[in-house]
Write a structure and sequence with these properties.
heterodimer; A: alpha/beta; Rossmann fold; de novo design (two linked rop proteins); 2 domains; 17 helices; globular; disordered N terminus; B: 235 residues; mainly alpha; 9 helices
Chain lengths: 437, 235
């Protein structure tokens, strides 16, 4: 009972996971359940005070880039002071990576933890405006769920900064930081060149903090329990836990909250010992399952196969599918999702996609493989955003991981017995400018 | 001897210098406009990379300004006709050929604004720079009118052919620019258009190499990759 009044239910000891998601099952947490488990929002009563705790905790962005959160907070606060302008805080729940489902799940099950984090981040950088940016149609109706949560908070008066809900267009790039700023500013969700960094000049020119929704949820817990508690799980270099989207052979997404450094063998399950594993989603890396199961879920270990933790997507390719055909299908989708702005991406990705489709077919020309290698090198690092880079990484890892399959295709054979598409792709690509709005 | 043949002597030297530099300035400004049109379409010139076309546009415009400056200063310094210094900047301030010299002043003012905003481009918003830069399309015809009207003999000599050639070149260039813009694929459709282009090329190659037979299609592994979007199993 004493524990409960401090907001620490007895079942929630230090290393116990999940930390973010509800302990029991799939019941969304309303305001009452949320405060019973976590307690009220521990406001620091002044800007900047939370930043030292976040730095000690070593929290990094959970949207995929793993940028240290305290540095972003510090940069926004500094820019706000230097330019005497109130910053804006944006919770990024766009999660446009089709294979990922962890942000939608978090927003569905524990919206108040994210909204707590948004308030605390707003206080830390002295913001007077907060926006929650997401696809409202995910998970039945996550937008309605979030509206309810915001109404609940308004009723109890827990928030100090008003929160506005904003809808992300259904594009792969809509969660990209500069694309998101463009979209919220009334334009299409297409990336722009950096600098200026959004921490300096973001929405309407104001210093802007953009953090993934899971990052904000972690931040809300660090504010309550401190950096030492946060570091009790994870590795020394990459502390804490993270939400993962795991798809095994059945293709259904499972969301697990796991400590960084967890063996992939435990995540992929017994079926994942042969075949291939996709680590990090469609901008990620294919790796042979035999190698992947020896690794742990941290960027240091995953570097051995050229992969990173990213947004925590792990997919086991079923043995009856063709990895080349799956890759070709995804790269075609990625090419169509190019904003069509930068020459290397606009001209390069369609060619790579077409050549990959050839490799996925019977008896491809040898030239196609060399063309892809060359084009992948030519597009990397030459866009306003990292869309060409991520696509090139994905393609190159496929050529290495599915090298044996490629040889089979050159002889006119394929090991796949099931032609049904496995990796998920959203319906419809952009045709008009309105599709980006 | 030379003076008698060419008509150049100490009293006419400035007048001839002014006319010569004026003609060169017109040709240079025409070239600058044509290069500018090329730059807006990311066009290239034979043997030059794209950035060199941009550099040529910039540097040639500065050379043109030097010739305009010489043209103006020699005209003012020449004592045969009375063109006060103020008439260089202020339109209609010249007693001699009030309207036609005035047009030259208008063109010069616009050119100066275009050059200065370009030199300060890093400190200006793109929108402001572009708005001023578009005035170049006004500056050129005004300068052209000034050049064919200021001295009547130009309407009758071979120099008129030069002026007409410049006008044709600019009109043709602007026409090409507008036609190219009308053919532009909207940004949102560019990738799709390119995708179908490379797809068509691949299909054509298959047909030419005889790989696109029904039997070959049966043997092929799952490549619905180009057949169209597939249903998501998530949303």
């Amino acid at each position: 009972m004493t524990m409960a009044t401090k907001g620490m239910p007895a079942e929630d000891t230090a290393t116990d996971l999940p930390r973010l998601l509800p302990v029991n099952g799939q019941q969304p947490q309303d305001w009452h359940a949320h405060t019973a488990r976590h307690g009220r929002i521990p406001y620091r009563e002044a800007p900047g005070r939370l930043i030292a705790d976040i730095q000690q905790a070593g929290l990094t962005g959970r949207g995929g880039a793993a940028f240290p959160v305290h540095r972003k907070l510090g940069a926004v606060l500094e820019a706000a002071d230097a330019r005497r302008r109130n910053p804006v805080v944006i919770a990024n729940g766009a999660e446009s990576e089709p294979a990922s489902d962890k942000d939608a799940t978090l927003l569905w099950l524990a919206p108040h933890l994210v909204l707590d984090g948004l308030q605390l981040a707003a206080e830390a950088v002295n913001a007077e405006e907060a926006i929650l940016y997401t696809h409202a149609d995910r998970r039945d109706d996550v937008g309605k769920r979030l509206q309810q949560a915001i109404a609940e908070r308004r009723a109890v008066g827990s928030d100090r900064v008003p929160v506005e809900l904003a809808e992300a267009p259904p594009r792969f790039l809509s969660g990209q930081e500069t694309a998101l700023i463009n979209h919220l500013g009334g334009g299409p969700a297409i990336p722009t060149f950096v600098p200026p960094r959004v921490t300096e000049r973001g929405l309407a020119g104001a210093p802007t903090l953009v953090q993934n929704v899971e990052t904000l949820a972690h931040l809300a817990l660090i504010a309550r329990r401190g950096p030492r508690w946060f570091r009790q799980v994870g590795t020394a270099a990459e502390p804490g836990s993270m939400l993962c989207t795991i798809r095994r052979s059945d293709g259904m997404p499972r969301i697990a909250e796991v400590p960084l450094g967890m063996p992939l063998r435990d995540l992929l399950g017994p079926a994942g010992s042969d075949g291939a594993v996709l680590i990090g989603g469609y901008h990620g890396t294919w790796a042979p399952a035999a190698e992947a199961v020896k690794l742990t879920l941290d960027s240091h270990a995953l570097g051995a196969v050229g992969a990173r933790v990213g947004a925590g997507i792990l997919i086991t390719l079923p043995p009856d599918r063709c990895g080349l055909a799956e890759t070709a299908r995804i790269v075609r989708y990625l090419a169509l999702e190019s904003a069509g702005q930068c020459g290397p991406c606009l001209n390069g990705l369609p060619r790579i996609a077409a050549a990959l489709a050839e490799l996925a077919g019977a008896r491809p020309r040898r030239q196609a493989r060399a063309d892809i290698e060359r084009w992948a090198g030519l597009v990397t690092g030459r866009g306003a955003c990292h869309h060409p880079d991520g696509t090139a990484r994905f393609v190159r890892s496929a050529l290495i991981t599915f090298a044996a399959e490629l040889d089979r295709h050159e002889r006119g054979r394929c090991s796949a017995t099931n032609t049904r598409p496995f990796l998920p792709i959203p319906r419809g690509s952009a045709r008009t400018e309105e599709d980006w709005l | 001897m030379l003076e008698n043949v060419s008509g150049i002597n100490s009293s006419t030297a400035l007048w001839y210098a002014s006319r010569a530099t004026g003609v060169v300035a017109l040709v240079l400004m025409t070239a600058v406009v044509l290069l500018g049109l090329t730059v807006t379409r990311q066009g290239r010139l034979p043997g030059l990379p794209r950035f060199a076309v941009t550099g040529l546009h910039r540097n040639l415009s500065l050379v043109a300004v030097v010739f305009v400056g010489l043209h103006v200063l020699t005209a003012v310094a020449d004592s045969y006709v009375n063109i006060p210094l103020t008439a260089v900047i202020v339109p209609l301030a010249s007693p001699y050929e009030r309207l036609w010299i005035g047009l030259g002043a208008v063109s010069l003012d616009i050119t100066v604004a275009v050059i200065v905003t370009s030199l300060l481009r890093r400190h200006l918003s793109r929108r402001l720079w572009r708005a001023v830069h578009l005035l170049a399309y006004l500056s050129w015809p005004v300068a052209w009118l000034h050049s064919i009207s200021s001295s009547r003999d130009m309407l009758h000599s071979w120099m008129f052919l030069l002026a007409a050639g410049c006008a044709l070149a600019v009109v043709g260039g602007v026409g090409w620019r507008l036609a190219a813009a009308a053919r532009d694929v909207p940004r949102a459709q560019r990738v799709g258009v390119l995708m179908s282009a490379v797809h068509d090329r691949a299909a054509l190659r298959d047909r030419l190499t005889g790989r696109d037979t029904p039997a070959a299609r049966d043997r092929r592994p799952p490549t619905d990759t180009l057949a169209g979007q597939t249903r998501t199993n998530r949303r």
